[in-house]
Design goal:
- The chain has 18 helices and 18 strands.
- It has about 525 residues and is of the alpha+beta class.
- The protein has three domains: about 130 residues, Uridine Diphospho-n-acetylenolpyruvylglucosamine Reductase, domain 2; about 110 residues, Uridine Diphospho-n-acetylenolpyruvylglucosamine Reductase, domain 3 (2-Layer Sandwich); about 140 residues, 3-Layer(aba) Sandwich (Vanillyl-alcohol Oxidase, Chain A, domain 3), CATH 3.40.462.
- The strands form four sheets. A seven-stranded antiparallel β-sheet has the order 15-12-14-13-17-18-16. A five-stranded antiparallel β-sheet has the order 5-6-10-8-9.
- The radius of gyration is 24 Å and the shape is globular.
- The two termini are about 30 Å apart.
Length: about 525
């Protein structure tokens, strides 16, 4: 029984486990033995307080607090045998050592926003190493840097910068509850991407616990591993504990606006012109384009597509109106459409304009919004040639036919054209006009609803094949998508990894494999789409 449950022979477990555990269930035995190992490997007398077994009354709360996709919060979803919530680096080191000792897989969770839930779901027995207690943020305005632990959220980072300076920021994502660990290690980005690049383009140091349980910084880990965890996904190489980042300058006043048009309001022509302008305009301007099938207000009962341009400009309203009057006349932007505000308030507005308009304050960025999630699916693509008007009309038809799934177009250009494709593992730089996020959310928990919406996303993704990158058809790691390939870590592990990782990393894949093979040759740190070792 123990052999089939743990996938390791019982006599090996007995090396670490007392024979008195034989009467316990496999789960109880593992918990007891794992805890014993932790106490033997750590002098912290309170270490048992950070370990939660399935029988612990707080287990479900700790597990569900950072599940951000309701698809993976059902009774049939696999649950971890143990959750460890480290409060200092030594707890992480001991967890890695002890998980290796009992040969159980670790899943590493910082904010829980992985779109496929792979930071907290697994088919075989596993432990969650949940980083939410590791949330120290030290902001040094004099040197324009900040130290941020992996369990911090982006909202907390933005707020701690704001506490110290009103003219500094950091170029990362727009969702404040996203965890730093996954976001930065996967090449996270936000509304300042065209001015300052990705989050990882502004990282100058990091701390990681490797497979041997060693705590390493940039100097001791070496430049290869430091390169890999800035866009290659940290969970393939160890447990990232922190990043040290460069802060960037933001003006005292920035401008935001949102303009919406439907097909009967010439949205198609708007999107044609957006493709020409958004990737080439002033690099202080980021104009995200949201495309969604909706019910028409003009002709009741009919479906249409709504195009929404949602923008941040690092400057004043009058200047951005002047720029877009010349470059993007179809947008029809007027000063009355613009809101001038501080950078920290632009973060609030971009995350939730309604909440901002109702008086949300910067302190709300500290709200982790625990145990709250809808059902969702995301996919990604890159566009390297503008989609023609005829092509867009076909896409609108398919979106209306499917009924729910929409797009987010995120423009590149600016700084993204200046950084080489191999500067970090994230390769999608010059040559890409914009990135597509396929997006669908729903609240119906039924299996039929989930199947329907997942199929909609797959169908639209397939339909988009002629309009997006190819050889490879590239994808974005932080928009995790298991449809593009899964690794079973059998004899064909390298080939299986090549399928999805070439899409995420293009020509940087082989370098990532070489680094992985050196730092974790037995592939202890793994997940469904991690970097494989070289055969």
């Amino acid at each position: 029984m123990a052999k089939s449950y743990f996938s390791i022979p019982f006599f090996l477990l007995s090396v670490f486990f007392s024979s008195s555990f034989a009467a316990q269930t496999p789960t109880q035995s593992l918990y007891t033995s794992f805890l014993q190992c932790l106490t033997q490997n750590n002098t912290d007398s309170t270490i048992s307080n950070i370990v939660f077994s399935q029988t612990n009354s707080s287990f479900s709360t700790v597990l569900q607090d950072y599940i951000r996709n309701a698809r993976f919060n059902t009774t049939s979803t696999s649950k971890p045998l143990i959750i460890v919530t480290p409060k200092n680096p030594s707890h992480v080191q001991s967890t890695v050592i002890c998980a290796k000792n009992v040969n159980i897989q670790i899943k590493i969770r910082s904010g829980g926003h992985d779109y496929e839930g792979i930071s907290y779901v697994n088919k075989s027995p596993f432990i969650i190493l949940d980083m939410f207690n590791l949330r120290t943020i030290n902001v040094d305005i004099e040197n324009e840097v900040a130290y941020i632990q992996a369990g911090s959220t982006l909202g907390e980072v933005y707020y701690r910068i704001y506490e110290k300076s009103k003219v500094h920021g950091f170029p990362a994502g727009v969702c404040p509850t996203v965890g730093v660990g996954g976001h930065l290690s996967g090449g996270g980005y936000g509304t300042m991407l065209r001015k300052y690049g990705l989050s990882v383009d502004n990282v100058i140091d990091a701390e990681i616990v490797d497979v041997k349980g060693r705590l390493l910084n940039r100097k001791s880990m070496g430049e290869d591993l430091f390169w890999a965890i800035r866009g290659g996904g940290g969970a393939s190489f160890g447990v990232v504990l922190s990043y040290t980042i460069k802060l960037v300058a933001v003006p005292e006043t920035v401008t935001v606006f949102r303009i919406e048009k439907t097909l009967d309001q010439n949205a198609t022509d708007l999107v044609v012109q957006w493709q020409q302008v958004a990737p080439t305009t002033d690099d202080r301007l980021f104009m995200r384009l949201l495309l969604q099938p909706i019910t028409s207000k003009v002709v009741k009962g009919t479906k249409t597509v709504r195009a929404s341009v949602v923008a941040l400009f690092l400057g004043g309203a009058e200047e951005v109106v002047g720029i877009l009057e010349k470059e993007f006349p179809l947008l029809g932007l007027k000063k009355a459409d613009c809101i001038e505000l501080s950078w920290i308030n632009s973060v609030l507005w971009y995350n939730d304009a309604d909440a901002f308009n109702n008086g949300a304050k910067p302190e709300s960025l500290l709200d982790r919004n625990l145990n709250s999630a809808s059902f969702g699916k995301r996919k990604s693509d890159y566009v390297q040639k503008p989609i023609s008007r005829d092509g867009l009309e076909l896409i609108w038809k398919k979106m209306i036919e499917l009924g729910k799934v929409g797009f987010v177009f995120n423009p590149y250009g600016g700084k993204m054209n200046e950084i080489p494709a191999d500067a970090t593992p994230f390769p999608h730089r010059a040559g890409n006009l914009f990135k597509i996020q396929f997006s669908v959310n729903w609240d119906d928990p039924s299996a039929n609803a989930t199947t329907n919406y997942l199929n909609q996303a797959k169908t639209l993704y397939s339909f988009m094949t002629p309009y997006v990158s190819n050889n490879p058809r590239s994808a974005y790691l932080n928009y995790r998508d298991l449809d593009i390939g899964i690794n079973s870590f059998g004899k064909n592990s390298y080939q299986e990894g090549q399928v999805y990782a070439t899409k995420y990393f293009n020509n940087n894949f082989d370098r990532l494999v070489k680094i992985k093979t050196v730092v974790d040759p037995k592939n202890f740190f793994r997940n469904e789409q991690s970097i494989p070792v070289h055969p």
